[in-house]
Here is the input.
Amino acid sequence: MWKCRQVRALLAAAIYEPLGEGDRHLLDTHIEGCARCRALLASMRETVDAIPREDVRYEGDLAPALRARIDTLPTRSLAWRILPYPIAVAALAAALLLVVGVPLQIPKHPEIQQTHPVAGVSAARETARVENGEMIAALALDSPVAQAVCEADALIEKRAYAEAMRVLQEATTAHPDDPAAGTAQERLADIEFSHLRRYARAFDAYVKLRNQFPHTFRTSPESIDRFDLLVEGWPDSFNPLYTLDVARADGAEGFRALETLVAHHPGKLVASLALDEMQRVVDDPAAEGDLPHFAELEAVLARCNNPVAIAQVNLRLGDTYSRELRDPLRARGAYLEVAQSDHPVLAPLAQEALARLGQP
Amino acid sequence: MDHSARGDSELALALRGGDHDAFEELVRRHQGRVYAVAYRLTGNREDALDVTQDAFLKAYRKIGQWRPIGGFLPWLLRLARNQAIDHLRRRERRRHEPLDETMPSQGDANAAMIAPMATDAAVRAREIDERVRKALVRLSPSQSTVFILRHYEGLALAEIADELGCTVGSVKVHLFRAIKKLRDELEDLRGP
Here is the structure.
């Protein structure tokens, strides 16, 4: 007779679909002699029957709305390469007009709006505007810096970072007022941060992006996150970030280093990133699927020794119980552990969380 | 070019190369599926629509990270599930914000309007929906996706395997684990 484990997959299938003759026979034979699997099948069937099947369909078409949203995205590598086709058509028309001698210029000021008989060209121009002294352009196909950004993206794909930086720097030096200069600066900062991991230089690059290209900076959540992280790491010469890189590279072996990082930087962004990494380390890819967040955190908690690290895991666990599982009882337990720790940074955070939860 | 005859992976690769029509074809092909998953996790149509759009936008922006080996739809559904969970977190955070204390949240307001008219059966149905939704969030991505596609969308197991690019055997295992976990979570909802 088959073992229980071998027929489990058939149990679920049998609830929804008629089984093939062979499978049906195997399941029936097993169930006849196994009260446990018989009960399991019955309880699973009851569960499925208790879950209503409301028919929910989406009959609309999201493509136009998405196209409109994509048109407003900040310029990024893909946005340069993947242009919505009406804009691409408009750009082609603009290029043709340039060839036949009709001068086209992106207006320096928003109030100078010229219309053009070619459909789409004026719309393309309208995306250019000045904000805090920064020229914003969602589309500037003929811009030399935009072309340099495309070239640099191709070089980044090939990991030719030094060459990509040279292309970007030369283009922005030659055309400092180019509408795509902010995007070029964002790329330079990105190369320093995520590819070369030269954090001091990345810090300078993001400071420049923030000060000289405020729109590009504001519309790039990734840049804002990195800037905050670098500001936090600056007093320690970015050493916590380097430690994090090393621990990440060590994979499962880096767990202890991550724990130390979490313990030494309570409540900081770098501790949060280290905790993310610890969750990844315990989430065994060979397991049945991704662990839910709370299970990952419980596994991290089980492996931690340092009391400050444990307190931070408990804080996140409390948030997860509360927000994802809507389980205030377990959330309270996790927060209480931290609140009672008297840690000057973490205990007040736990007390705030307990206050949010309200009375038991 | 007629995109309707092209496979998902081919379209995704075309999108990577800058073909916006390919993106629109992928949207039209999968918007219903993504919306269904988003709806089961968020519990209302408005949020589901937001999540669906955000998931497609994320796919558009992150297409460089997609690898053909895994299939496009599973990757997209994973993005949608993550978006839905982020959406739920934000919704929960908004409920905790101090400003909300002075006025009922939208959910509370809706409940207040509905409450006098709701029958016991309707209240019970809402309670069950809410419980199931929370339980689905706790499943692993593969388990929740397989369960949603089979239970709510009515896809055959072989069709799910085809869409997710895996074997029917692994679909059965995910489904078994999903139902077993749901059974444990919803134990009190079963009959006497």
Observations:
- The first helix of chain B runs from residue 8 to 16.
